[in-house]
Amino acid sequence: MSKLPKADQFLDLSDYGRPIAMTIAKIFKNTAVTPIHLTIAFFISGIIALICILEHEYVASFFLLITKSILDAADGELARIKNTPSYVGRYFDSIADFVLNFMLIFTIGHLEEIHWIYMLSAFIGLELQGTLYNYYYVILRNKYKGDTTSRIFEITAPVAMKGEKQTWVNFFFNTYLLLYGVFDKIVYWLDPKAPYSEKWPKWFMTAISTFGLGFQLLVIGLFLVLGWIRFVIPFFIGYSVLIFVFILVRKAINR
């Protein structure tokens, strides 16, 4: 099941794992496995990938990062196919991504003996890229009545859905806000009029999907396999320049 109606779907370059994710969701549809179980599985996959990087097992780390991306898509697919949307699952997924991204960048920086300022710059760039992509994607999903578990503005804790406790929703929401709040505010400050945009060309969404986490992990994995690990951090620092380019293009389209 897609996050968007079929007529409004675009080629999402960060979502290459969706076909396999859908198969995994179908396998677990009538089982006791929950979306959160799959979120835990992708977190474990990411941790093992980090261990492989530290051991210089880059081919293994590449496949584990791809596995992580697939499972990251599968948890949402399972929630949709079981019709069990969850704010706890939505925030837990994002929190797990944040922790893994931080550990991934700093693991690579540690191996290459890169100054922590550059590691932090790459991490901030990585998160801002993903935040801009998610910002635009959530706006699009709300506009065309797609999946609405994610909200354009995460300001207050949402009301718990059926089957989850408000206490846990509040806890995961506040944790999410602590980690992502500053990135959300920066992106909104850079492009506050985006929610009022009428035009969202598919080619534009495809281009900005290169900011999606799946594509980011694919790039990191390929750099590792090709022996370009020293270029990972400089790449994400430099690629962040496109944040301003995409915002200017979005504004030009809706002028």
Automatic annotation (TrEMBL):
Keywords for this entry? Membrane, Transferase, Transmembrane, Transmembrane helix
Instruction: Report the transmembrane regions from the record.
Output: 40-66, 87-109, 115-136, 203-225, 231-249
Which Gene3D superfamilies does the entry mention?
1.20.120.1760
Key word Transmembrane helix present: yes
> What PROSITE patterns does the record point to?
CDP_ALCOHOL_P_TRANSF
Q: Which domain of life is it from?
A: Bacteria
Please give an example of a GO cellular component term from this record: membrane
A GO biological-process term: phospholipid biosynthetic process
What's a single GO MF annotation on this record?
phosphotransferase activity, for other substituted phosphate groups
One Pfam family cited in the UniProt record for this chain:
CDP-OH_P_transf
Family the UniProt entry places it in: Belongs to the CDP-alcohol phosphatidyltransferase class-I family.
* Protein name according to UniProt: CDP-alcohol phosphatidyltransferase
Q: Which organism is it from?
A: Maribacter luteus
